[in-house]
Amino acid sequence: MPKHYICPKCYKSLHSKKAFNYHYYEARNCLDKKSVCGWCDRAYSHRKNLMAHLKICKKRIEKDNINDNSQKDYSESDIQNKSKIELTEKLHKKIEKLHKEIEIIKQEKMKVENKIIIQNNTLNNSMNNTFNYNRFTKTKFINALFPSATNFNIENYNMELDKNQLEQYIKCGCPDGVTEYIKDKIIDAYPVEKRSIWCIDKYRRIYLVRINDKWKSDDKGVKFAIPNINIICEKLSDYCCEKICKLNEILAGSSEDESYSIDEVYEKEIEEERMMYYQFAEDLNKNKLTAKVLKDLTPYIIFEKTEYENNDTQQKLIKHFQ
User: Fold this and answer.
1) Which of 130, 176, 209, 321 is the 20 to 30 Å CA partner of 269?
2) What span, in angstroms and rounded, lies between the C-alpha atoms of 75 and 187?
3) Neighbouring-strand partners of residue 302
């Protein structure tokens, strides 16, 4: 059934809202024959004038602007709400995806941790079954391996020299001659288990010296090593002085006894030999010679644990520290 719009002033029935608006607001036909504006109540004698006025009627234009703005605001708020909803949905999807990835990472982490635990257990078992050399220091090694080493004392070594040996060392000069002399008489002349001095520091500053049947630490060789090297230098100096005296006697005998004459070439050789011994004896008294000799000897007495990692060493270490 079609809807009818009734005018409240003249009770006329109109079939559409457009016809009702024209009848009530614009024409005012129900009151008089004049054309009256329904917005500002201005009356016109002709409809044509009324239509022209409606185009510029301020009240009608203001009302239309208010309606347009409200519709515009409403549409913009709808768009904003819609965009917010879409953003929240996207964020929820991303969060769900991240949660799934985190769960996967946790599972992989658990697998890796289990593998590491298994590997550590197997490694610990293997280390328990094998002998651990790292827990023994070099000092403990030497104490356990060489309990019967010779005491570092010049009286315990055969330091005697014959003529050929003395000339051999003196021709090397200082400090090389002294180094070779100590190496031959103290280091190489005895087996490793009888050696009485070791260097246990990679910087070559700490020595272990056998004193009174005990291994004692010697920082830079000041306590035990260098004093003993000084005694050896004094012994070499005595050898040189004896040789110089003998050569002096030969030269003096040839000058005093006219019947005893030597060849000039031979006399020159004796003089050169005497000067060689004299120079060597003089170099023995120089400062810091003993420190240089000890430094040159160090490469021959460095102790390395890796050279002794065998079954015999294991048994000795276990027996020593039980």
Assistant:
1) 176
2) 103
3) 199
Q: Which residues pair with 75 in a beta bridge?
A: none
CA distance 317 to 144: 6
Please name the residues in contact with 23: beta carbons below 8 A apart, sequence gap of 6 or more.
7, 12, 14, 29, 30
Residue ranges per domain, the chain? 5-56, 75-130, 138-321
Residue in 208, 196, 191, 181 with CA at minimum distance from that of residue 290? 181
Which residues in the chain show pLDDT less than 50?
A: 31, 33, 74, 127-131
- The DSSP bridge partners found for residue 14 are 5
Q: What is the pLDDT of residue 130?
A: 46
Look up tokens 């070791």; give the residue.
Answer: 198
Alpha-carbon distance of 62 to 71, in angstroms, equals: 14
Cα–Cα distance measured from residue 6 to residue 25, given in angstroms and rounded to the nearest whole number: 13
Question: With helix as H, strand as E and coil as C, how does 228-259 read?
Answer: HHHHHHHHHHHHHHHHHHHHHHHHHHHHHCCC
Rg of the chain (C-alpha set): 59
Q: Calculate helix-pair angle for 138-145, 311-321, nearest 10 degrees.
A: 90
Q: Can you give the pLDDT at residue 62?
A: 77
DSSP reduced 3-state for 207: strand
What is d(CA 165, CA 146) in angstroms, rounded to the nearest whole number? 30
In degrees rounded to 5, what are phi and psi of residue 199?
Answer: -105, 125
CB-CB contact of 128 with 190 (8 Å): no
Q: Using CA atoms, how far apart are residues 141 and 313, in angstroms rounded to an integer?
A: 9
pLDDT digits (tens, 9 = 90+) for 95-114: 888 888 888 888 888 888 88
Let me know: does 179 contact 283? Beta carbons within 8 Å.
Answer: no
- Between CA 76 and CA 67 the distance in angstroms is 14
Directed axis angle between helix 264-284 and helix 163-172, to 10°? Answer: 70
Spatial distance between the Cα atoms of 145 and 193, rounded to a whole number of angstroms:
7
